Amino acid sequence: MSTAPYLQRRQRLMAQLGSGIVILPTARHAVRNADTHYPYRPDSSFYYLTGFDEPDAVLVLLPASSQSILFCRSKDLEREIWDGYRHGPDGARAQFGFDQAYPLSELDLRLPGWLANQPCVHYSLGRDADWDRRVLGWIDAVRGQLRTGVSVPPCISDVALPVAEMRLFKDAHDLNRLREAGQISAAAHVRAMQATRPGRMEYEIEAELLHTFVSHGARSPAYESIVAGGANACVLHYVSNRDRLRDGDLLLIDAGCELDGYAGDITRTFPVNGRFSGEQRAVYDIVLAAQLAAIDAIQPGVPWNTPADAALAVLVQGLIDLGLLSGSVAGNIESEAYRQFYMHRIGHWLGLDVHDVGLYKLDGQWRSLMPGMVTTVEPGLYIRPAANVPERFAGIGIRIEDDVLVTDTGPEVLTADAPKHPDAIEALMASAQTGAHA
Ligand code: GLY
Ligand code: MN
Ligand code: MN
After folding, report:
1. Could you tell me where the beta strands, DSSP code E, fall in 175-271?
2. Could you read off the pLDDT of 203-220 as tens digits, one per residue?
């Protein structure tokens, strides 16, 4: 593992902050039930700045002296026999490029001294009550020493904000991982299309996705996979994935892998039997046109909402053309009548978190897209049965989602390997079915 990206990020953050003390604990190892835990995943910002993936660790930065310090678990032969290797402070310092490293048990001993005379504590209050108590306790311990001439830090400032701004602009390491996460996620969607047949269960297709993720070293999905046959696609966060797939229905899959902490996030919608019906194709073509219009609009300097507006105009015109809305495009946008069929946003920043950090507005205005930002583009139409919906459209739910990097020369689609043109999907599924019979 190269420590360089993490070291550079810590140096950039410290240069930006200039003074004070950063305290950033990693995530806890969450209990699943009884004495069984969920697979461990570090806090995204902690991992972004350290590359260190053991639980029970705290990053401390002293910007004025450019010192990076890690507190982590001690070496412990008995625990390592049962649970596996631990770096220990000495190993962590050597392998991860910290200036100092100490056992976690020394936090209370060392932190009050380092907090004395600091102009600011850069710490995210309110995320973890136990850590809040610890940090406030260290500040109070400084207060207890006032008569020795020390001063108490007069402010606590949320370190999440500057780190979020850094994470929003992807560096070379981020992009390398995001591209690979996009490719693996796309390969999983291809495998799912090839495996889908009427009569199979949604969870069988979920298993195909997981097979591709894990066999490429992406040991977990980035979020719960949505494998939604037929009208289940109209439930936006459908994750039960236990219905049987029916001939004539569509299958909506929203799934992406997590690779080294980085998320892929792809949605594809395709026919269970490999051929779109006329109605399905009509709705699909609208969603695809909306998605392509939004991706085209992803240019440097363009406000965040411009791609969203481009997609919305296409969706609303399409709904009018289908007879599902009446009146003008502008009128339906003004009245929000389209929300019956399209009720979510166009997308979100993507990175170590699937809904990644980073502000969408600055000073109340949508911020401009800039090279290095990565966003999803995911328009959809969800046509639930209703009095104003002809039966032939009822139960059709379609979303198409890609991950897009803003570059100087326009959009780079990181997930382009997953086919989305209906002819390409039908051709892929037909060749998979022929292959199965050969
Ligand atoms: N899969 C989560 C999302 O698309 O936002
Ligand atoms: Mn998404
Ligand atoms: Mn998604």
Report:
1. 220-221, 226-229, 250-255, 257-259, 262-263, 266-271
2. 999 999 999 999 999 999
Residue 438's pLDDT is 44
Res 173 pLDDT > 50 = yes
Query: Which residues are annotated as catalytic?
Result: 35, 237, 254, 265, 344, 348, 355, 378, 382, 399, 401
Task: Say how far apart CA 411 and CA 23 lie, in whole Å.
Answer: 36
* Residues lying with their CB under 5 A of ligand 2, a single-atom ion: 265, 376
Report the distance separating Cα 212 and Cα 189, nearest Å: 9
The ligand minimizing its distance to the Cα of 376 is 2
For residue 209, the CA-to-ligand 2 centroid distance in Å is 17
Do 121 and 19 meet the contact criterion of CB atoms below 8 Å apart?
Answer: no
Identify the CA nearest to 151 among candidates 115, 122, 123, 125: 115
Distance CA(381)–CA(341), nearest Å, equals 5
Atom of ligand 1 nearest to the CA of 347: 5
Looking at residue 434, what is its pLDDT? 86
Q: Which two tokens stand for residue 411?
A: 């959009």
Residues 6+ apart with CB under 8 A from 363: none
Residue 1: pLDDT over 90: no
**266-296 tens-digit pLDDT:** 999 999 999 999 999 999 999 999 999 999 9
| Spatial separation of the C-alpha atoms in residues 238 and 128, rounded to whole Å | 29
For residues 287 and 259, the answer to whether their CB atoms sit within 8 Å is: no
The DSSP string of 300-339 is TT-BTHHHHHHHHHHHHHHHHHHTSS-S-HHHHHHHTGGG
* Per-residue DSSP letter, 389: S
For ligand 1, what atom is nearest to the CA of residue 255? Answer: 1
Measure the CA dihedral 30/35/40/45, to 10°: 30
With vertex at residue 266, the alpha carbon angle to CA 185 and CA 193, rounded to the nearest 5 degrees, is 70
The contacts of residue 307 (CB under 8 Å, 6+ apart) are 293, 294, 295, 297, 298, 346, 347, 375, 377
Name the closest ligand to CA 223: 1
CA 161 remoteness from chain centre: 17
Cα–Cα distance, 378 to 415 (Å, whole number)? 12
Tell me the Cα Rg of the chain.
Answer: 25
For residues 438 and 421, what is the distance between their CA atoms, to the nearest angstrom? Answer: 26
